[in-house]
Design goal:
Blueprint: E1 6-9, H1 11-24, E2 29-33, H2 35-39, H3 43-49, E3 55-58, H4 61-69, E4 76-78, H5 88-93, E5 97-100, H6 103-111, E6 118-123, H7 135-146, E7 151-157, H8 171-180, E8 188-191, H9 193-198, E9 206-207, E10 233-245, E11 250-251, E12 257-258, E13 263-268, E14 285-288, E15 291-296, E16 304-307, E17 319-323, H10 329-335, H11 340-345, E18 352-355
Parallel strand pairs: 1-18, 2-3, 2-9, 3-4, 4-5, 5-6, 6-7, 7-8, 8-9
Antiparallel strand pairs: 1-10, 10-13, 10-17, 11-12, 13-16, 14-15, 14-17, 15-16
Helix pairs in contact: 1-3, 6-7
Length: about 350
């Protein structure tokens, strides 16, 4: 029999979450962010669930080629643009839309010999200081692109660093963007998931939802369920052993958990080699036989231990939910000191996946 660990992917939940994004920004087109193998859910799999999106955003040309190979004719944006000028002919052949975030990229595109024009996005650094042109350099890059025979449409974009923080928000960056670009004739793409949900003034022509499409919240104080989203991935396993330990006995590597009483401990077929966070430690929430309990001790490569006190009838073969339906991934991530994005994208290739 197969190892019982499985990730169940709900395509109907994806479609539902896309609907939430569209309802929140009804006058905008939706560029569904499917980079990182669809946030760990499988690129072509999530594309099926998000077919009603107006476009897709990926990181690499091979991801875009995979979507084109599956027959998707949607606009596809390369979020980091091209890394070398020799990639441009393939970008043109696949009719992709690279993000231009440096002046030398604009110049390389202008010099290239392409079979037809391509649409681009010009990224402006309004305060995140990661990718993008400083406001003082935007006019030069825009002129280069407008004068190039290789460039078709131009969309202006930026990325918000603190849209998930209610006390800071987007006001300063949005003001910088508006001051930098007074020409209202070009389409704009500003909002990530957090801005889409919290700041309607950022919606513009294209919104770029990512984490919300997968049912998780971009906000530290809310879950996806709080926002009307449905979890797309449910990571499930079963108990493969039950141990009865005495008060004073330890569990797992390093003996980091020591029993304060006699207790039953379950062993779950899931470990850090499957993508479960090793640094979670004792106390991470977990469902065993439908009962909420906690993990115990260090996570091993292939298994972890759980407290069976809240689930006294659990036995070998009892179902376990690591996150997903009935257990928000945000709660597990918060205990591990990380974010839902990391847990979802860290799902290991060895984990079986099933569409539901």
């Amino acid at each position: 029999m197969a190892r019982p660990l499985i990730a169940r992917i709900d395509l109907a939940a994806l479609a539902h979450n896309l609907g939430v994004a569209k309802a929140a920004a009804p006058r905008s087109k939706v560029l569904a962010v499917v980079k990182a193998d669809g946030y760990g859910h499988g690129l072509t799999r999530v594309a099926r669930g998000l077919r009603a999106a107006d476009g897709f955003a990926v990181l690499r040309i091979d991801e875009a080629a995979q979507l084109r190979g599956e027959g998707y004719t949607h606009p596809i944006v390369l979020l980091q643009g091209f890394f070398q000028p020799d990639e441009l002919p393939e970008i043109a052949r696949l009719r992709l839309r690279p993000v231009i975030h440096r002046q030398d990229q604009a110049e390389s595109l202008a010099r290239a010999h392409l079979e037809h024009r391509i649409d681009v996005l010009l990224k402006i650094d309004t305060g995140m200081h990661r990718l993008g042109l400083r406001p003082t350099r935007v006019a030069e890059a825009l002129a280069t692109l407008r004068n190039s025979p290789n460039v078709g449409g131009i969309t202006l974009m930026t990325h918000f660093a603190r849209a998930d923080e209610a006390e800071v928000g987007v006001a300063e960056q949005l003001a910088c963007f508006k001051e930098t670009v007074s020409d209202g004739s070009l389409p704009r793409s500003l909002a990530n998931s957090a801005a889409l949900l919290r700041y309607p003034e950022t919606h513009a022509d294209w919104v770029r939802p990512g984490i919300m499409l997968y049912g998780a919240s971009p906000f530290a104080d809310l879950t996806g369920a709080d926002l009307g989203l449905l979890p797309v991935m449910t990571l499930q396993s079963r108990l493969i052993a039950v141990q009865r330990i005495r008060k004073g006995e330890a569990v797992g590597y390093g003996a980091t958990f020591v029993a304060e009483r006699d207790m039953s401990v379950g062993v779950v077929a899931c470990g850090y080699a499957d993508g479960y966070p090793r640094h979670a430690g004792t106390g991470a929430p977990i469902l065993v036989a439908g009962r909420l309990t906690r993990t115990l001790g260090r996570v091993s490569m292939d298994m972890l231990s759980v407290d069976l006190g809240p689930a006294p009838d659990a036995h070998v073969g009892s179902p376990v939910t690591l996150w997903g339906a009935d257990l928000p991934v945000e709660h597990v991530a918060a205990h591990a000191g990380t974010i839902a994005y990391e847990l979802l994208t860290a799902l290991a290739p060895r984990v079986r996946v099933e569409e539901i």
